[in-house]
Amino acid sequence: GDGCGHTLLTPHSGTLSSKNYPGTYPNHTACRWRLRAPPGTSLLLAFGDVDLEPSERCAHSSLLLADPQAGTTYGPFCRNTVPAAPLLVTNSSAVTVLFNSTSHRSGRGLLLSYATSQHPGGIGTGASPDPPLATCFSVYCPAGCKDIDGDIWGNPSQGYRDTSVLCKAAVHAGVIADELGGQVTLAREKGITLYESAFANGLHSKRGSLSEKRLIFHKACHLLLPACGDVLEVAAFNASSWWLEVDALGQDRAWVAERAALGTAGHSWAAEPGSNSAWLELDLGARRNVTGIITKGSSEQYDYYVTSYWVSSSRDGKNWRPYRGSGGQEDKVFEGNADSYREVSNAFIPPIVARYIR
User: Fold this and answer.
1) Could you list the residue range(s) of the whole structural domain that residue 140 is in?
2) Along the 358 residues of the chain, how does pLDDT read in single tens digits?
3) 57-81 exposure pattern, b = at least 16 Cβ within 10 A, e = fewer
4) Fewer CB within 10 A of the end CB, N or C, for the chain?
């Protein structure tokens, strides 16, 4: 049987867990993960959780790490034989992770992340360290944090409750791409009374109550990659088609491209019903650095919205390039809206440099 749970492995970082984590892992399973870093680097492994039912010499359930280059092993580990430290520094660019289970009654299983020696700082997946109030600190978030267990409260504009899963919040805030991970620099500031929920970058955050402190992914923290919160002006809208609606009173209502601007009162843009490959085009007037997009449905009165979409860009309005995200080989599908009135944010990592966006 398959003992592999959530897994995302890249050359520079990754996250893996046993099946059903953090629920009880299944009986009679096995899983083997091969971690490979670029030549000349070594692997750092962070044990987020190792909770395997105890047994003599971990015979019933075990985690074993093998370093084939050095000919050494680490473990076996289980609940009564846990790793000596939460971070294991190897001298190898390749490590094999072995997980086995026989019959057992309890245990969450395992959660493990890794990064290369190019990122010697702390590797974070769960709650953040506790530095002094209002100071910047840095954590390396491995790839694959989006789907680990744990909640986040808050949103990119106001910040996050300090009990939020830090690296998951970083994906929600759009400061890293889940498929690559990366260094995150943030501040811990005074908490606020209420944290509002939001849907951003494929993640839902929760509405949360007062906390003593909050996490801010801060532009003022100089180590943070350049980001921008300014709204870009749109010089002109264009579309593949538009809908001319005739309402119940026989009056015409034109759902033209110009009505696509966020915040427009009343109805928005809509393509002609039944049209294929519909698109909306934004002319920014000049080449701009575009770091993300916010979408919203038509309004509460007109319950229309787009659930998913692709993005293309052009510098001249003639040659178009599909957006593929961080090293992706396929056009990226962005997760859109689930209702007509809430805003949904998606970050472009890396940003798009273009005049026209479709």
Assistant:
1) 136-218
2) 688 999 999 999 999 999 999 999 999 999 999 999 999 899 999 999 999 999 999 999 999 999 888 889 999 999 888 888 889 999 899 999 999 999 999 999 999 999 998 775 667 766 555 555 557 888 899 999 999 989 999 999 899 999 999 999 999 999 999 999 999 988 888 999 999 999 999 999 999 999 989 999 865 443 333 445 678 999 999 999 999 998 878 889 999 999 999 988 888 999 999 888 899 999 999 999 999 999 999 876 788 999 999 999 999 999 999 999 776 778 999 999 999 989 999 999 989 999 999 9
3) ebebbbbbbbbeeeeeebbbbbbeb
4) N
